[in-house]
Amino acid sequence: MKQNQLGNSDLLLSEIGLGTWAIGGGDWGMGWGEQDEQDSISCILEALEQGINWIDTAHAYGFGVAEEAVGKALREFNDDSIIVATKCGVLPEEDNKPKRFISRETILEEVDGSLKRLGRDWIDLYQIHWPVPSENLIEAWETLQDLKKAGKIRWAGVCNCWQPELEALQAVAPVSSNQPMYNMLDRKIEENVLGWCDQNNSGLLVYSPMHSGVLTGKISHQWLDSLPQNDWRKHKTDHPVVKPLHSKDGLQAFLILQEELRLFAQEREMTIGQLAVCWALSPREVTSAIVGARKHGQILETVQASNNSLSQDDKNLIMKYITKFEESLDHAG
Questions:
Q1: Which of 53, 161, 176, 293 has the fewest C-beta atoms lying within 10 Å of its C-beta?
Q2: How far is it, in rounded angstroms, from Cα 219 to Cα 204?
């Protein structure tokens, strides 16, 4: 698989990385339902065997559950060259629901826990998960620089940051990477984040290329009904990712889009999921797209997206479908 250098770092990342949000289980407020640890380990090993050379995880994903599974899989795979990225800044509240919070004190505690769970002496890429609260962002970024000097992390990055935040961080120390959401239904980073990262030699790792499973070709009334109660897509009905699916008009509009994308992908011998990953990888500024998996066999389809590409004409036609979908949502109110 093609590899790209991550910003100003010495990390060479496969253009598809394995995301582990879903293997964090269903008991932390943003889970995806119950998850068997052996399934998690199996899908991680399969991804590495397919040429993916880096894993993106976080303390928040099950509050240690995903990191522990990653650590066990890495010990089984036994290849020290595999790159591990994890995150700090989301903490458990009393009911194990996630709370975004960064501070020097909490980060110093989180990094030691992540190192222990991963079974590693250092973390290749350590990222601030969310810039919350904003008044602590510079302190948190300075803390990551101290961790780098101490040898606990090799490179420091951020997630979900916009241009003003990136510029403030860059004034303290170079931002090796930013990890925002990007897919054909969420294109906000095209306005200024893509350009900023390009101009400042900051790597761009995009998450949710399949929009948390929405762009897989599997959406239907039955799919929504079958989601378990501890899958966040079931109960967070006002979340912008799934909100359109939880109204009659919104779901009907999406099903039309889904069929248009299916026919488009079919003509190019792709699935909708592969098409979505291709879209996310299409900007030259993108270093790698993070693709999630939770069971053996799932990653086999999506890794094939690295063998395909989209022309500008392809993207223009896709945008016509998406614009029509978005306009139908506006009319529906």
A1: 53
A2: 28
The CA distances from residue 266 to 88, 218, 309, in Å, are 40, 15, 14
* 292: β partners: 19
Q: Could you tell me whether strands 98-100 and 90-92 are parallel, antiparallel, or unpaired per DSSP bridges?
A: antiparallel
Among 32-36, 296-300, 329-333, which is the least confidently predicted range?
329-333
Secondary structure element (H or E) that encloses residue 13, with its range? strand 12-14
Residues in the chain: 333
Question: What are the two backbone dihedrals, phi and then psi, of residue 197, each rounded to the nearest 5 degrees?
Answer: -60, -40
Are 50 and 164 in contact by the 8 Å Cβ rule? The answer is no
Eight-class DSSP state of 153: E
pLDDT tens column, 38-65 = 999 999 999 999 999 999 999 999 999 9
What would the 3-class secondary structure string for 38-83 be?
Answer: HHHHHHHHHHHHCCCCEEECCCCCCCCHHHHHHHHHHHHHCCCCCE
The one-letter amino acid code at 286 reads: V
Cβ within 8 Å of residue 115, ≥6 positions away: 121, 122, 123, 152
Q: Which residues are catalytic?
A: 61
Note the pTM of the prediction, 2 decimals.
0.96
